[in-house]
Design a protein that fits this description.
The protein is built from 19 helices and 18 strands. By secondary structure, the chain is of the alpha/beta class. The strands form four sheets. A six-stranded mixed β-sheet has the order 5-6-7-3-8-9, sandwiched between helices. It has a six-stranded mixed β-sheet with strand order 14-15-16-12-17-18, with helices on both faces. Strands 2-1-4 form a three-stranded antiparallel β-sheet, covered by helices on one side. Strand 10 (325-336) and strand 11 form a beta hairpin. The relative contact order is 0.08.
Length: 638
C-alpha cells in the first residue's frame, strides 16, 4: 500500500533550480536510502516530503491519517521534564486507558444485569486494545531504548535542559522510535552516536514495523538497513532495488550500458548523416538520402551519460622505504594528569600494515595517536619508531591549517621550492581549481578543509601515515576516492575511524582499545565483529559452566549470604502465589464446566441469563489470573 507519493517535484531558489522532475513512491515497510552528492538537495527533499518546505512545483500526497516523524540533522526539543518523564508522555493515551481499565474493574462489583454486561463488553474491548498497543510492555520499551542510546538509569531523572546538543538529538531520535510512526524520516541519524549505539540502532530499524527514508553518509549503516536506494540528481530520482553496495554495482552497470547505447546511436547517426551529405544532391540517390534524413529526424537522441561531477584524484606516495618494524608500543598507559583512560596498550606495527583503532567514545583513541606523535606524553610506557620511518599526521581538528592563508598559500608556504604549476595541479586533484585556490581557509567548509589537509599530507610523501578520523566532513564520493588512494598507498597506515565501511575497505588489522588495555585482531572490521562475538559467547559459556559447577557443590562458599537468602524468600513467595493461582484456575474451570452443563439442560430465560452473567464474570476473572500467572512465571524464570 502506498503511504506517500511525490510527483514532478521541483525546488528552485531565486530562479536557480536545485532539482526538478522528482518522482517518489513510498510503500508500507519500505527501507529507503536517499543518496546523492553533497549539495544536490537531499535534506531539502526530505523537508518537502514531510511538509516542512513547499516545492516550487509538483505535489506530495500522503495516506489519510499517516503518522510521520522527522529527525533533522539539528533536531532537538525544549522541555523541563526529566528524561524518563518525557518518554512516558509518548504513552499518555495508553496510560489514560490503563486508568480507565482500573476504574472499570472497581465498578464490576457494583453492577448487575444489562449494565454489568455492557461494562464487561467495554472492558474486554478496551483490554484488547490496551494489550495490542503495548500496554503491558511500554515501560520496558522505554528502558530498552534509553539504554540502547546510552541513557542509563543514572540519567533518567536528569532534566532535558541539562543535556548537551548531541545528547538532546539522540533523545529526540529515541522518542521517535517509541512513537512508532508509520513513516520515519531520518536525516543523518548516526551523527552523535558511537559505533556500539549505531549497531544497536541498525538492529532496531531492521525490525521496525513502519517505513523508513534515511539520508546518511554511513555506508555500512545503509548496507545493513536499506533495501531500496534512491539516487538524487539535479533532474531525476533514480530507483535501485538493494542496499548501498548493491546500488553502487547497479549504477556502474547502468552507466556502462548507457554509454554503450549512446556510442552505438552516435555511430548510427554519423553514418546516416554522412550518407545524406554525400547523396542528397545526386539525382540517382536523392530519394534514398531524403528517406535517411526523415529517419534522422525521427530518432529520439540519447543524452550523453554523465557519470557524475568531477571527483577528487587523491594519491599518496612514499619517497623512502621504511624498515620492516615501523612502530613499537610497549605497555603504555594513556590519558592526562590524574586520569588514566586505558592501560596497558601494546602494538607492533610492521611495514605495509593498515591498522584501524576502534573502541568506545572517551576511551582515548585520539589521545593514543597524539601520544605516539609526541603531542601528549604517555603516563606510563613508551613507543619507538623503526628505521627510516617518516611520519605524516592528519589531525581531525584541522588545527594545523592557517585560517588567514589562501588555499594556494597553505600549500605553497610549506613547499616553497615546488613550482606553482605543480601546487595548482595537486590542488586540482583535490578539487580546488580556478578561483577556489584564492579562497581563504576560514571561508572553506569542513569538507573542503579536510581535502586541503589531505592535499598537504599527500605532498609530504611520508611512508607512515597516522590519521585521526580522516573521513569526517567528506561526502561519500570523496570517502571512496580516499579509500582507493590509501589502499594503493605504498607505505604503512595507522588510523582512528568511526566509519566501519571505510575500515572494512582499508584495514588489514583492527586494534581495539578499552579501559583494560588493547587487543589486536588480524582482519577487517567484519572479522573483528565475528571474533568479538565468538569471544563473548565463549566467555558466557565459561560463566554458565562456573555457575553450574558452583551450584553442584553444596559446600562451596557463598559470597553474599543475605542476598541469596532474600532471593530464596522471593522465590518461595512467587511459587506460593503461582500455586494459589493454579488452584483458583482449577476451581474456575470446574465451575465453568458446571455452568455449561446447566445451560445445556435448561430453556428457562431468566436462569440462562443468570448463568451467562456468572460465566462472563468467571471468564474475566480467569483472564486476569492467567495474566498474573504469566507475569509471575516470567519473574520466576529470571
Amino acid at each position: 500500500m502506498i503511504i506517500l507519493q511525490g510527483n514532478k517535484i521541483e525546488r528552485s531558489f531565486s530562479g536557480d533550480v536545485l532539482f526538478d522532475n522528482i518522482n517518489i513512491q513510498v510503500d508500507e515497510r519500505d527501507r529507503i536510502a536517499l543518496v546523492g552528492r553533497n549539495g544536490v538537495g537531499k535534506s531539502t527533499l526530505l523537508k518537502i516530503l514531510v511538509g516542512e518546505e513547499t516545492p516550487t512545483s509538483g505535489e506530495v500526497n500522503v495516506k489519510r491519517d499517516l503518522t510521520l516523524s522527522y529527525l533533522a540533522q539539528d533536531s532537538r526539543f525544549e522541555s523541563e521534564n526529566t528524561i524518563f518523564d518525557e518518554m512516558l508522555h509518548v504513552f499518555d493515551d495508553l496510560r489514560a486507558t490503563e486508568q480507565t481499565l482500573r476504574s472499570m474493574e472497581l465498578q464490576m462489583a457494583e453492577l448487575d444485569g444489562a449494565n454489568f454486561d455492557k461494562l464487561m463488553n467495554d472492558y474486554d474491548r478496551l483490554s484488547e486494545e490496551f494489550r495490542a498497543n503495548g500496554g503491558f510492555t511500554y515501560e520496558s520499551d522505554i528502558k530498552s531504548i534509553l539504554n540502547g542510546f546510552k541513557f542509563d538509569e543514572t540519567m533518567w531523572n536528569m532534566t532535558i535542559s541539562e543535556l548537551s546538543g548531541g545528547q538532546n538529538t539522540r533523545l529526540a531520535l529515541a522518542k521517535m522510535l517509541l512513537e512508532r510512526p508509520e513513516l520515519l524520516v531520518l536525516d543523518e541519524p548516526t551523527n552523535h552516536l558511537d559505533i556500539e549505539t549505531i549497531a544497536w540502532l541498525e538492529n532496531y530499524l531492521v525490525n521496525y514495523q513502519g517505513a523508513l527514508i534515511i539520508v546518511s553518509h554511513d555506508r555500512y549503516f545503509l548496507d545493513k538497513v536499506a533495501t531500496i536506494t534512491l539516487d538524487l540528481t539535479p533532474h531525476s530520482l533514480d530507483r535501485y532495488v538493494g542496499n548501498y553496495s548493491k546500488f553502487m554495482d547497479l549504477k556502474a552497470e547502468k552507466i556502462a550500458t548507457e554509454e554503450k547505447n549512446y556510442e552505438k546511436q552516435a555511430k548510427e547517426i554519423a553514418k546516416l548523416e554522412d550518407f545524406v551529405q554525400r547523396n542528397i544532391v545526386r539525382a540517382s540517390t536523392t530519394k534514398r538520402a531524403q528517406a535517411r534524413r526523415k529517419q534522422l529526424e525521427k530518432i529520439e537522441r540519447l543524452d550523453k551519460p554523465i557519470s557524475g561531477q568531477k571527483s577528487a584524484h587523491m594519491t599518496f606516495h612514499a619517497d623512502k622505504v621504511s624498515g620492516n618494524v615501523v612502530l613499537t608500543v610497549a605497555n603504555v598507559a594513556i590519558g592526562y594528569e590524574g586520569e588514566v583512560l586505558a592501560q596497558p596498550i601494546n602494538l607492533d606495527v610492521k611495514k605495509f600494515d593498515a591498522i584501524a583503532i576502534v573502541g568506545p567514545n572517551g576511551v582515548g583513541k585520539s589521545t593514543f595517536i597524539k601520544s605516539i606523535i609526541g603531542q601528549i606524553p604517555f603516563i606510563n610506557g613508551r613507543s619507538s619508531y623503526g628505521a627510516n620511518v617518516e611520519v605524516g599526521y592528519y589531525d581531525q581538528t584541522q588545527s594545523n591549517l592557517t585560517r588567514t592563508n589562501t588555499v594556494l598559500d597553505e600549500l605553497w608556504n610549506d613547499f616553497s621550492t615546488t613550482p606553482e604549476v605543480e601546487i595548482r595541479n595537486r590542488l586540482g586533484a583535490f578539487l580546488f581549481s580556478g578561483d577556489d585556490v584564492k579562497k581563504s581557509v576560514n571561508m572553506l567548509s569542513g569538507g573542503e578543509r579536510a581535502r586541503l589537509l589531505l592535499a598537504k599530507l599527500s605532498m609530504q610523501n611520508n611512508n607512515f601515515l597516522i590519521l585521526d578520523e580522516p573521513t569526517n566532513h567528506l561526502d561519500i564520493d570523496s570517502k571512496e576516492v580516499l579509500e582507493n588512494a590509501l589502499i594503493d598507498f605504498d607505505g604503512t597506515l595507522l588510523f582512528v575511524s568511526h566509519d566501519r565501511y571505510f575500515i572494512n575497505r582499508v584495514a588489514t588489522k583492527v586494534l581495539e582499545i578499552s579501559e583494560n588495555g588493547s587487543q589486536l585482531y588480524l582482519g577487517d572490521y567484519d572479522y573483528y565483529l565475528q571474533k568479538k562475538a565468538e569471544q563473548e559467547e565463549l566467555a558466557q559459556l565459561t560463566i554458565n559452566s562456573q555457575q553450574e559447577e558452583q551450584s553442584s557443590q553444596p559446600d562451596s562458599k557463598i559470597s553474599d549470604y543475605q542476598t541469596q537468602k532474600a532471593n530464596q524468600k522471593e522465590l518461595r513467595k512467587l511459587n506460593r502465589r503461582i500455586s494459589e493461582i493454579e488452584e483458583e484456575l482449577e476451581d474456575i474451570e470446574s465451575r465453568e464446566q458446571e455452568i455449561n452443563e446447566a445451560m445445556m439442560t435448561t430453556n428457562e430465560a431468566t436462569q440462562l441469563m443468570d448463568l451467562q452473567k456468572e460465566l462472563d464474570a468467571i471468564t474475566n476473572q480467569q483472564d486476569i489470573l492467567m495474566l498474573e500467572w504469566e507475569q509471575l512465571s516470567e519473574q520466576l524464570d529470571k
